[in-house]
Amino acid sequence: MKRLLTSLLTVMLLSALSVSAASDKVVKILAIGNSFSQDAVEQYLHELAAEEGYTAIIGNMYIGGCKLERHYNNAKDNKAEYYYRKVGTDGKKVETQNYTLDKALQDEQWDYVSLQQASGVSGLYNTYTPYLPYLIEYVKARVPATAKLVWHQTWSYAQDSNHEAFPNYGKDQMQMYEAIVKAARQAVKDYGFDLLIPSGTAVQNARTTFIGDNMNRDGYHLNVPYGRYTAACTWFETIFGKSVVGNAYAPAGMTKDLIKAAQESAHAAVQKPDEVTDLSYIQEMMSDEVFFVRPDSDFPGAVGGDGSSWENALKFGDWAAKISTYDKGTTFRFAGGLYVPAEPITISNAINITGGFDPATDGTETAAPAYPGKTPTIFSGDVNGDGVANTGDLAAIIKADMTKSAKNTLPILIQGIDFTGVYYNSSNGSGEYGALYMKDSQNMTVKNCNFYGNVAGGYGGIAVRSEYSKAHFIDCTFYQNTAKSRGGVARISSKAPSMSDITFERCSFTNNSIAETTGSVICVQHAKALYIINSTIAGNTAGGGSGAVYVNGKNKDYVNALYLISSTIAGNNKNQLQMAQGANLFIANSIVTSNEDNATTADAAIAVTGTTNTPVLFTSLGHNVLGGYANQLSTVEAPVWHATDITGEANTTSSVFGSNSIENGAIVPANISNGATEATLAEIAEAWSITGCDLSVDQHGNKRGNDVPGAVKKDTDNAISQIVADYKTDETAYNLAGQRIGKDFKGIVIKKGKKVIYK
User: CA 512, 479, 692: angle at the middle one, nearest 5?
Assistant: First the structure.
């Protein structure tokens, strides 16, 4: 009842004291604060007011982290220590340095003046005195008698915030929120503030929606744009007395669902400023819109259309410039051709990108072209146009950066795209790089994509760089990617045990290289898990040793596991698998053999290495063909293999595959017959919780028999094989995935069965 009465009184007071109707009167608002008032009023508030017909002047007296105590001292001594940010009637912001409070208070005939405590002590009411009563009298002496005094309720930190003041509240978000609400209400009661602006409650309300605990960009400041927009909505409704719900203004990059969440969170806070309103019913809706995109070369000297059809397709450059403005789940269909973005394309929302369409034959209802297609869609980082990846080219093509996003678990689908021409040079691996860069993207699917001709002058992961992400690669090829160290193709890392979970299914990795160590193909560092299923890794080179797949298990708070199922890792120089620092191996129905297989660490099929004697878990569910095993750690016991496994140094690549070579991304075993049955594979999937992968087929999608382990069965008759046969005699040029290429293609091609470079 007490809360209800408080809420009713607040609403009545708001109605009496706020602007009642749009008029020619200019509403003048001054905030005396810090970066939290900057987040709340310096952007979006002016536009929200203008949308409803109000004209506003908004000022903010800014000092980062400024407490009431410092405001008090600045007022008492007339110190010119402020940045005075002023948004005029035209909406433009002007900053003046070295300003005093006295000068700012007399700069305009202010209608509203707000005060606030610094965020870290905003819930500690004892820090408000003796400074607050002095500041109130100071302000009242310098503004019109009609001016309303406002208290700005700040917000609690993100639960994972590392702010130095968070321990004041036991590093507990709700404890901090409740303390802020209590202190703010006490200040309003004790000092007679005319209005309370409940930004803290609005932010907490938003956290109950699909946004979750993603309202802060750094653990305490508000996210851009939707965090700041939520606070601005709260100020608007409090000051102007009009519901913000339905206000037509929203900043660029805001989806309809984010707008609804922000507006409803602010509105509920104004109605109930001292308690959290559960808005979990507000969910994001998937868009059903489809847009069509064509290369810039299809639009000489002109902008593209609205994307409604192939005839009115979006120009690629226009699409890339406004990619962040589309609603969640929007589908984009790309015509075949060469696409060279001016800068990396940042994805921060759910999206569907599908390439390989032929506008002349594919109608607007075609879901996805057949693969391999006749019209490949090529995303290239080769901005200098010399046909190779080198200095001056892009370090990334697509960046799926979902850090601190409300949408990091929403689906991203990329299919039918070639990624090439990326170059990055770093000695420490820092930076956002890789043809496909993923950061905190927890639901990525990549299908029927080719990654080739990407170069890293330093640390690798030049084709795929994953930081604490979850992604599923299906039917993708990776070839002729190079790096100096740490993953010629992919580098996978994590920051938490629950993150960085990568699956490669029906993929091929061939002719990739690394100059030094730690994985000619894949380098896994401190990640949760890597799954390699129905895939081939063969013919890759590590110049300094440390073979094809390197998995580091140094941080034991991570699972640090490699799951290898129905796959072939063979014919790579040096080790095929290097399990370092306690990384764990789960293996079934796979072939792992080296060219010069023996029990030495450098050449063994499976090697255990590291500087710590951390126990290594080896788990085999059988039906494997494995070459030599080497262990440089004296305390790590040799694995006990399954009864159906064929193991030993005699199992070399030549003995297992004979004269068979890599064709169509895979090698067919010659004389092996210990493969798992479909029923056994189903049991393996259940035992290791493998979901979303089809273990009943081989790498080429053919139903497995009961014959051989590894990526493919002996019977390779399929449509893709026919393409391979065709292009050996055809005059047409193909990329290395067997796709016919257009005249604009640059890079390595196959013509009449031979490799040629098109520049």
Answer: 110
Beta bridge partner(s), residue 490? 464, 522
Whether residue 730 is predicted with pLDDT greater than 60 in this model: the reply is no
CA–CA separation, 218 vs 660, rounded Å? 54
Mean pLDDT of 459-475: 92
Asked, for residue 530, whether it belongs to a domain, the answer is no
DSSP conformation letters of 248-307: ----TT--HHHHHHHHHHHHHHHHSTTS----TT--------EEEEE-GGGSTTS----S
Whether 566 contacts 533, CB under 8 Å: yes
Q: Which residues contact 699 (CB under 8 A, 6 or more apart)?
A: 506, 507, 508, 534, 535, 536, 665, 666, 711, 712
Structural domain includes residue 399: no
Provide the domain count of the chain.
2
Domain boundary among 223, 246, 271: 271
State the pLDDT confidence band at 398, using cuts at 50, 70 and 90.
very high
pLDDT one-digit tens code per residue, 332-351: 999 999 999 999 999 988 89
pLDDT per residue over 117-161, tens digit each? Answer: 999 999 999 999 999 999 999 999 999 999 999 999 999 999 989
Q: What is the pLDDT of residues 639-673, one digit of tens each?
A: 889 999 999 988 999 999 999 999 889 999 987 88
Separation in Å, CA 520 to CA 46, 101, 199, 402, 510 = 55, 62, 52, 28, 10
> Mean pLDDT lowest for which of 22-31, 45-54, 622-631?
22-31
Question: DSSP assignment, residue 403?
Answer: T
Q: Please state, in angstroms and rounded to a whole number, the distance separating the CA atoms of residues 318 and 103.
A: 46
pLDDT digits (tens, 9 = 90+) for 86-119: 999 999 999 999 999 999 999 999 999 999 999 9
What is the phi/psi pair of residue 515, to 5°? Answer: -75, -30
229 part of a folded domain: yes
- The pLDDT value recorded for residue 499 is 63
User: Taking Cα atoms as reference points, which of 286, 287, 231 lies closest to residue 262?
Assistant: 231
Amino acid letter for position 34: N
Task: Give, in order, the Cα–Cα distances in Å from 587 to each of 447, 606, 687, 709.
Answer: 24, 12, 12, 11
Amino acid (one-letter) located at 116:
Q
Residue with tokens 């960046």, as numbered in its chain: 399
* Domain membership flag for residue 177: yes
Domain that holds residue 56: 24-271
**CA-CA distance, 366 to 238, in Å (whole number)?**
50
Average pLDDT over residues 718-741: 46
Q: How far apart are CA 708 and CA 722, in angstroms?
A: 22
Reported as type and span, the H/E element at residue 523 is: strand 522-525
Report the length, in residues, of the chain: 759
Q: Answer with the one of 247, 271, 295 that is the final residue of a domain.
A: 271
What backbone phi and psi angles, to 5 degrees, belong to 49?
-65, -45
pTM: 0.67
Ramachandran angles phi, psi of 81, nearest 5°? -115, 5
